[in-house]
Design a protein that fits this description.
The chain has 21 helices and 14 strands. By secondary structure, the chain is α+β, with helices and mostly antiparallel strands. The strands form five sheets. The protein has a five-stranded antiparallel beta sheet with strand order 5-4-12-11-6, sandwiched between helices. A three-stranded antiparallel beta sheet has the order 1-2-3.
Length: 552
């Protein structure tokens, strides 16, 4: 399925390649794109992983494959030769050291017209050549140069934003120019990774073939691309905004010494550097009052308790020696129990992983949380330990103790002082939830209003399988799907997520956004304020009338 109709590249790629050319896409995004496509091509759908030693012999997949294919990006025929020549030009000594089968002599011969079938010895030599340090670097550079052509094709077609251009590149690399134009030609506008994916899966309705770019065999590949583009590209502005808003998170935890406080980012980076990084975040269904109690009760044990895994029951009651004892997990579990959460028990970290709900919308990159605004007091950060046989390798936990120095649930970074900041936070969450691609500027313009509608459409599809087009246009079908739907205090639905985003886009602070949303006291209070301000029944229930008003 890979497009093999591209000609050779005449430009030699030296170390200053990126300095010599004006790129349509920034290098950092090309690197992300490389990590994405590398993962779905040969990396087992693991982000950043790619198989540099990939080799496919002639006629392996189809009779049209006259010669071999090399490298993680599937460089066929003359492009494979081009790769080898790049490596030779860049590092002839290293090339010749790896070449024990006369590959150098093949660099001046057309591999496709001669239908070159490498011998077993030549195959091994080719793999040795392309997996040298220079070989790996050349594979990445040659791939990125190809992507520039795809990006030019996308721009000529009218695709201007980076997330959509990345989807274009992935699809064109898989199937070629004609299929990608077909997919984009029927995709809903404005383009987003989600609308493009929705167009892709329409291929599955064509019973005549099962090998089109959008068919089932490629679905997981596209899902990975959408997920990673949202994670590493569409969240970029959100990450910047979080830093600009001065989001600081303090953890509290009990390691081998006494329970202590520490800065979250510093602590996470330190553990990551030792191979014991953050892998997930867990959250008990706490009320605002319970979250404050979690902070206040844990404060009692800071610097007081002694580390002991056998005396975990004595976290808040003195042992017979008059001392208090706990470990990392019991210090959090016993604190939650004391804050009024029933049935917590004294779980170890494996038990917490198994029984506590996961925070699904947290973004963790290299062990560091990129969107700290989703955190809440009492959340448990789960880190790798020394035993890789445990679930996810988890061996340690720390609790979110304070956010921006505050101790209640209202300490979420979204609780900003200005209406513009709240709208900006809403725009960030709308991008994350729908892929709307908004500019995070705090201005409630036409696109921001459409993003609010997209949030509702997305939620109705997720909660109720409404089958709506997520296009930001409110029509009869969307209206009918919303009828008789409502969320209130205690509700956990994606529709709550949409309501939280809608409130923010109107400048009302619900104290955070979750996915799926949990309708807590902060959301109820913001809903009530909005209803009062807009002459609606102030029942703190987000039903049809309130949601219609929010999207207006």
């Amino acid at each position: 399925m890979h497009n093999s109709e591209r000609g050779l590249w005449s430009t030699d790629l030296g170390s200053s390649f990126y300095d010599r050319r004006k790129f349509k896409m920034e290098k950092k995004y090309l690197d992300i794109l490389t990590n994405i496509i590398g993962a779905v091509e040969t990396g087992g759908q693991t982000y950043r992983k790619r198989r540099y030693n990939a080799y496919v012999g002639p006629n392996n997949n189809t009779s049209k494959e006259l010669t071999c294919t090399l490298g993680w990006a599937g460089n066929y025929g003359e492009r494979a030769r081009r790769l080898c020549k790049m490596i030779f030009d860049r590092d002839p000594v290293g090339f010749r050291k790896a070449d024990n089968a006369g590959i150098e002599k093949k660099l001046s011969v057309n591999w496709e017209t001669t239908k070159w079938h490498p011998t077993t010895a030549q195959q091994k030599a080719l793999i040795n050549i392309i997996t040298t340090a220079t070989g790996k670097k050349c594979q990445d550079e040659l791939f990125q140069e190809l992507m520039l052509t795809y990006i030019s094709n996308a721009e000529e077609y009218g695709v201007k934003d980076i997330p959509s251009q990345m989807m274009w590149c992935e699809i064109e690399h898989l199937g070629g120019l004609t299929p990608v134009k077909r997919i984009f030609g029927r995709a809903q506008k404005p383009y987003t990774p989600d609308t493009i994916f929705a167009s892709l899966v329409l291929d599955q309705k064509d019973a005549k073939t099962n090998t089109q770019v959008g068919d089932k065999i490629f679905e997981s590949r596209h899902r990975c691309c959408v997920k990673w583009i949202k994670q590493y590209v569409t969240n970029t502005e959100e990450k910047k905004e979080g830093k600009a808003m001065g989001v600081t998170v303090t953890l509290a935890g009990h390691g081998s010494g006494r329970p202590s406080k520490k800065d979250m980012n510093t602590y996470c980076k330190g553990r990551q550097s030792k191979g014991r990084g953050l892998v997930e975040v867990l959250r008990l269904p706490l009320t605002d009052a319970q979250r404050k109690k979690m902070h206040d009760y844990y404060k009692e044990i800071l610097g007081r308790n002694y580390y002991n895994q056998n005396l975990r029951a004595y976290c808040y009651k003195a042992y017979r020696d008059g001392k208090y004892y706990s470990d990392c997990s019991s210090s959090i579990c016993k604190t939650a129990e004391r804050a009024g959460v029933s049935g917590v028990g004294s779980l170890n970290t494996a038990g917490m992983h198994e029984h506590w709900p996961k925070v699904k919308n947290v973004v963790i990159v290299n062990g560091v949380i990129q969107n700290p605004e989703v955190l809440k007091i009492g959340d448990a950060l789960m880190f790798k330990g020394s035993d890789p046989s445990r679930p996810l390798g988890i061996g340690h936990t720390e609790m979110v103790y304070e956010i921006n120095g505050k101790t209640a649930a209202s300490a979420t970074p979204a609780a900003t002082s200005s209406k513009k900041d709240i709208i900006k936070a809403g725009q960030m969450h709308a991008n994350n939830f729908t892929g709307a691609g908004l500019v995070v500027d705090g201005i409630r313009g036409t696109l921001t209003k459409k993003a609010g509608i997209m949030a509702v459409q997305t939620a109705l599809n997720l909660d109720f399988k409404a089958g709506l087009a997520v296009d930001g246009e409110w029509g009869p079908k969307s209206d009918a799907a919303l009828k008789k739907r409502s969320v209130r205090l205690g509700s956990t639905r994606y529709l709550v997520t949409a309501v939280e985003i809608l409130l923010m886009l109107k400048g009302y602070n619900p104290n955070g956004v979750e996915c799926p949303g949990q309708f807590g006291s902060g959301c109820a209070a913001a809903t009530g304020r909005y209803q009062t301000d807009h002459s609606l029944k102030a029942d703190k229930i987000a039903g049809y009338d309130t949601i219609k008003s929010l999207i207006a």
